[in-house]
Amino acid sequence: MKYSFILLSGETEGFLEKLQELGVVDVTRSAKPVDDCSAAMLDTVVSDKKVIGKLEGLNFTKDTEWNAIQQAGEAAVLEGDLAVGAQTALVQLAELELAKSAAEKEMAARLPWGDFDKARLAHLESLGYAVRYYRVPEKKFSQEWAALYPLEVISEDKANVWFVTVAPKGDEYTFPVEPIAAPEGSWKEAEAEVKALNEQIIKAKGLLVKYQSEIPAMQETDRQRLVDLEMYLAKASTEQKADNMLSVLEGFAPVENDEQLCKTFDEMGVLYIREDAAEQDNPPIRLKNGWFASLFEVLTGMYGMPGYKEFDPTPILAPFYLLFFAMCMGDAGYGLVLILFGLGVTKKLINIDMFKNIGPLISVLGVGTLVVGLVLGTAFGINLAEAAWYPAALKKFMITGDIAGFPAQMILALGIGVFHICLAMVVKAIGYTKRFGFKENVSTWGWLILILGGLILAAVGMTNLLSPVAMKIAVIALAVVSGLGIFIFNTPGKNPLANIGSGLWDTYNMITGLLGDVLSYIRLYALGLAGGMLGQAFNILGGMMVENGFGPINWLPFALIVLFGHTLNLAMSCLGAFVHPLRLTFVEYFKNAGYEGKGKEYSPLKK
Which whole number is the average pLDDT over 283-290? Predict the structure, then answer.
């Protein structure tokens, strides 16, 4: 339902707060900042999220100074805004670690000069003597220099010799090599500076550990700031009328909430107008699916929500995506691993942010992979059709061998593609007819009749169910009916000759497009085949390790190769099995189904 509200401007904020409490009305509002204030609010929210993410990524438990860091954290005192304080602490830690790195380099540079008293050196300078510092490669250092010049070797190693000379300032002085800059201080001073910086780093890390304990409080503050931003955007999106004395608001809510909302609005004494939402209003979309299909709504959202009069593609997307994913994986063993992984995520035994909300989906994809893997006859790279230990009764359900000289699994993939595209065309014909009327979609029905009818007649012809005469009549009738729709009545109201030209162009695009679309489904066979062969290759490599013996020395490399190989293969297979079915859905299916996905998601104003 669509609701329009007319309020005194002074009542707007209180009314919006009431809508927040109701939590079911999607108030039309900007999706982006509308002024400097909302931009600053959004920047604060984004900044807070980044700080929280950085804090969650910190782990000092393996630090050699962990005990000292814990003690520093217990003694730390937090003041002011938590997120701002945490950001300041993060910057301070980065600066301290950079300063420590520079100090350690300086300490290493001073180490060859050891410890010395700068005051005594200064006194020597005051007496009229100049101290000069040298570093030369060990091979170039001459022992004769010590007999000719007042020289003292300070330190040496296999590569260099560090030494100084002392000479009166006024005397003419020459030496075979050029001096270097004097050290700014002793090694002990540099060491003390490194220790001091390390103490500050321990305190900074302790402070961050303290802030980590406040992450839930920061997240709650961030959520409240998001609520305030939503409220601000809703208020900023109101229209001002009658010299800013009146505010006009528009919102949408599900029909099931209409009775309760009307009762509430009447009790509030607010002036409102209610009407059925129309497509031109671009109402928000809330998907309604069962348990199974709802798991795949996240994939629909990746492309875009359906328009108000469009079909929700999720009920069709769900089973086909499951089938496509399972065929691309093609391994029953990997399916079992996915089931266990999904259960671990669902039960929070595995805590990885990118998977935290899709544990059930992963398990369902694992079940599909397990079933399809058994049908295709592969488990952890093992060919079950050739395995003597695998039950013969289960081998009967496998799809193996060739059909007309081509692999049966490839033919299956192409057959699934043809069915998927035909289903998309049926959905398009019905959906477009519902939205725009039959008259505007004669061409769509013409192509559907031609392709679907052609496939049916081809199947009937192969089975000899019709006589040659009846088959000829059926083919002529199909050609006439579809031809009229495609070439004559494709654009109502236009010149038939123009329609013929439009039909010919449409024919060219349809033929080339459909051929490419169907061939795209070969990837279902190719990816599954590649994953199975790679898994089998790792099994062979591991088996080579135990061919000549069965001792633990032989089994260890076998286990490492097989474990690493299948882990790598599983990761790559999952990536391919996620991306390629999405492509088949978003490109091949959505294009032929006419799906636009330009709707906006239902997002009610709420606390």
Answer: 92
What is the edge-to-edge ordering of all strands in the sheet holding 151-156?
129-137, 160-168, 151-156
CB 602 within 8 A of CB 286: yes
The rounded distance, in Å, linking the Cα atoms of 83 and 196 is: 27
Give CA–CA dist 282/295, Å, rounded. Answer: 25
What token pair was written down for 409? 């699994």
End-to-end CA, the chain: 21
pLDDT band at 549 (very low <50, low <70, confident <90, very high): low
Q: Is the pLDDT of residue 119 over 70?
A: yes
Q: Which residues, in sequence order, are CB contacts of 576 under 8 Å at separation 6+? A: 328, 527, 531
* Cα within 13 Å of Cα(421), Cβ side: 23
Place of tokens 């699994």: 409
Q: Please check whether residue 564 is in contact with residue 557, taking contact to mean a CB–CB distance below 8 angstroms.
A: no
Asked if 584 contacts 321 with a C-beta cutoff of 8 angstroms, the reply is no
Q: How many CA atoms lie within 13 A of 84 on its CB side?
A: 5
Digit-coded pLDDT (tens) for 173-226: 888 899 999 898 889 999 999 999 999 999 999 999 999 999 999 988 888 887
Cα 165 to Cα 172: distance, rounded to the nearest angstrom: 14
DSSP-H helix ranges across 484-551: 496-520, 522-545
CA separation for the pair 461, 506 (Å, rounded)? 28
Single out the residue of 377, 386, 364 nearest to residue 332, CA to CA. Answer: 377
pLDDT in tens, 304-355: 999 888 899 999 999 999 999 999 999 999 999 999 999 999 988 888 878 8
List Cα–Cα distances, 537 to 330, 332, 376, 554, 570, in angstroms: 16, 17, 18, 18, 14
Domains of the chain by residue range: 1-28+250-284, 34-103+191-236, 117-184, 291-409+522-593, 438-520
| Dihedral angle over CA of 382, 386, 388, 389, nearest 10 | 30
| Cβ–Cβ < 8 Å for 593, 425 | yes
For the residues 482-494, what does the mean pLDDT come to? 75
Whole-prediction pTM value? Answer: 0.71
Query: Taking CA 521 as the corner, what is the angle to CA 518 and CA 525, rounded to the nearest 5 degrees?
Result: 140
Q: Is the predicted pLDDT of residue 554 greater than 80, yes or no?
A: no
CA angle 223, 28, 37 (to 5 degrees): 55
Q: What is the pLDDT of residue 244?
A: 64
Contact 125, 167 (CB under 8 A): no
Please count the other Cβ atoms lying within 10 Å of the Cβ belonging to residue 417. Answer: 22
* Rounded Cα distance, 322 and 366, in Å: 9
Beta bridge partners of 276: none
Give the whole-angstrom CA distance, residue 535 versus residue 332.
12
What residues contact 524, with CB distance under 8 A and at least 6 apart? 324, 327, 328, 413, 416, 417, 580, 584
Q: Which of 7-16, 42-51, 371-380 has the highest mean pLDDT?
A: 371-380
Q: What is the pLDDT of residue 194?
A: 93
Residue 508 is predicted with a pLDDT of: 80
Q: What is the pLDDT of residue 179?
A: 92
Answer with the residue of higher pLDDT: 471 or 286.
Answer: 286
* C-beta of residue 243 within 8 angstroms of C-beta of residue 108: no
Q: With contact defined as beta carbons under 8 Å apart, do 382 and 538 qualify?
A: no
Nearest to 500 by CA among 484, 511, 513, 514: 484
- What is each CA distance from 241 to 6, 236, 238, 244, in whole angstroms? 9, 13, 10, 5
Is the CB of residue 242 less than 8 Å from the CB of residue 7?
Answer: no
